[in-house]
Every structure is written in structure tokens, then in C-alpha cells.
Amino acid sequence: MERNVVAYYRTSSQSNVGDDKDSLKRQQNSVITYTKSNGMKVVNEFYDKGVSGSTDVFTRGSFLEMMNYCKDNSIDTIVVENADRLARDLITMETAFMYLTSKLGFHLISVANPETFIEDTPTQTIIRQILGALSQFEKSQIVEKLKGARERKSTLNKSRGYVSRNGKGKVE
Q1: Is pTM, for the whole model, over 0.85?
Q2: Where is the Resolvase/invertase-type recombinase catalytic domain positioned along the sequence (predicted)?
Q3: Are 112 and 30 in contact (CB under 8 A)?
Q4: Element of type H or E holding 158
Q5: Nearest partner of 87 among 122, 60, 113, 125, judged by Cα
Q6: Structural domains of the chain, ranges and CATH numbers in brackets
């Protein structure tokens, strides 16, 4: 008998949302492939579009909708593509993990590293926290790269004589 689960997806930028974008499709493909090969059935999917991974999970619209759905339908397992879809901030991830598993009795499964959330042993805790720290580090690097690219583009636009409404060189 298949185990009923829900899938949670998150995309941090509105620019990655849409039929022509890969983020949601990639996440869905990973989750569906994993669940089918592990005797699980995704009975509903929840997607937070344009929500930062550092945002508290309990303030995310689709995440809260998912929690209510799980409660109303006796679902106790949430599947994500990767731990960073749950959170890209170590504290946010750990807080969510502890509350969801210890207080509410949920099981979390990260397709990329299924053992990440399954056991709360000292070894799994350190692995989960290292993965959370790496996700946070990766997010910080992305922010820095984007900031640098925006600054270079602004300088280039100003040198070409493009002026924006706010005067900072960004053409809107």
C-alpha cells in the first residue's frame, strides 16, 4: 500500500516563476520520481512562489495551507526536493525541523539526502546542520554575486547615458 504524502516546493525569486522556468518542474520531477520509487503517493502539492528561504516557514502562505491540509487529511509526511527548499537559513531550518517533527509529529524527507530529516541522532543532527549552514552560505554567495552584477550594470548604463527614474542607472 502506498503511503500518502504531500510535496512542498519553493522558489525564492519571482523571476524563476512561470511555465517557461525550470525551478518548479525540476522540484516536481525529483519529488515524483523519489516518491514513486519509494512506495509513496503525492496527494497534494504546495508551492510558495517568490519566497526567500530565510523567511520563517510558519509565515509562508502555501506552507501554512499545507499544514492545514495535512491536519485535515491525516497526512504526516512532507517531501521536498532538497533541504534548502525548506530553508536557506540554518536557524530557520532547525527551528522548522524541531517544531514539525518533535511538536507536530511530521516526517520530513529531502529527496537529495533522504536521511537528513529522518533520524534525530547526533550524527544526523550535525549532518543536517552542516547542510543548513552550506545552504545559508550558498545563499549569501548568490546575494553577493547579484549585488555585484547590479552594480556593474548600473555603472555601464550610466556610462551609456541611460538614466532611470530613480537616477541610479538602472533602466526600468
Answers
A1: no
A2: 4-157
A3: yes
A4: helix 122-159
A5: 60
A6: 3-156 (3.40.50.1390)
